[in-house]
Amino acid sequence: ARQVVVSGAASGIGRELTGQLRARGDEVTGIDLRDAEVCADLGSPTGRREAVEEVARTTGGVVDAVVACAGVSGTTQGTVAVNYFGATELLRGLRPALMAASLPRAAVVGSISGTQPNSPDIIDACLAGDETAALAAAATVAERGEGRKLYPSSKAALARWLRSVCVTDEWAGAGIPLNAVAPGVVRTPMSAAHSLTPEQQKVMDEAVPMPLGGHSEAGTIAAALRWLISPENSQVTGQVLYVDGGAEATLRGPEV
Ligand code: NAI
Fold first, then answer.
1. What GO annotations for molecular function exist for this entry (predicted)?
2. Which among 3, 35, 102, 234 would be 20 to 30 A from 76, CA to CA?
């Protein structure tokens, strides 16, 4: 059985992925704030360290795949801490355990929001690996009343991090494909938490147009993640796979 680590395993996409993997015989170590094998706060450096140490203990130091699903959609600093540093630092911390596996794979969950208006200051600080500066930049942006830019910034930074590290010695050189799945709107507790007025709903539908059958189920996103982390995927790396009902294709148009 493959040993898979899934963050955000207690809800939504992470929970669905965990169920699908277990149904196919994989062993999953879930990480979440609660209701998981490893309970830790990926929004803090201490919590991330605890998570990595605990995973090493429970898996014996060999991990076949890691999927960083945990995320939040708020308009405060924590969104950058969890979505960017919670994902990248978890993957970095578990890389030694991945290298101990024969066919290691890794994936993160991005978002179509990563293509929407963002804050370059936040993104630059993230990519520099400077969490203090990134959170300070996020606080400044939020104080300006532009807190809605934090989520897109965290996901754009995640996609750029992926591109910058995927073909280095640490990842491709170590035989580890590293990809992202970027959903549009997925029916999960996260999206349900935003109770929208009909007008807000209309703005949302225009921002994330999904001509191919509307909003996604969590299981659809999980299935794409499953393939990316399977042994079958030996050649795809550094890609942001939009599993978004056509949102990215609609927004970007026919140019490739
Ligand atoms: P969800 O809210 O159902 O699940 C997220 C999970 O992450 C929860 O179990 C939560 O406890 C966990 N989590 C949050 N903060 C954490 C922390 N500090 N430490 C450890 N665990 C933490 O959300 P959903 O929809 O399943 O989201 C999963 C991923 O998909 C996120 O990265 C999200 O940004 C992304 N996404 C979701 C979309 C949607 O429409 N639902 C659209 C695009 C991307």
1. oxidoreductase activity
2. 35
Tell me the residue range of the domain where 138 lies.
3-243
Instruction: Confirm whether pTM is higher than 0.95.
Output: yes
The 10s digit of each residue's pLDDT in 141-177 is: 999 999 999 999 999 999 999 999 999 999 999 999 9
Q: What is the CATH number for 97?
A: 3.40.50.720
The Å distance, Cα 54 to ligand 1 centre, comes to 21
Domain for residue 152, yes or no? yes
72 lines ligand 1 (CB under 6 A): yes
Count the neighbouring beta carbons within 10 Å of the beta carbon of residue 169.
8
Q: Tell me how far apart the alpha carbons of residues 129 and 235 are, in angstroms, rounded to a whole number.
A: 28
Q: What is the distance between the alpha carbons of residues 255 and 62, in angstroms, rounded to a whole number? A: 42
Residue 12 C-alpha to ligand 1 middle, in angstroms?
7
Asked if the structure places residue 222 within a domain, the reply is yes
Is residue 216 lining ligand 1, measured as CB closer than 6 Å? no
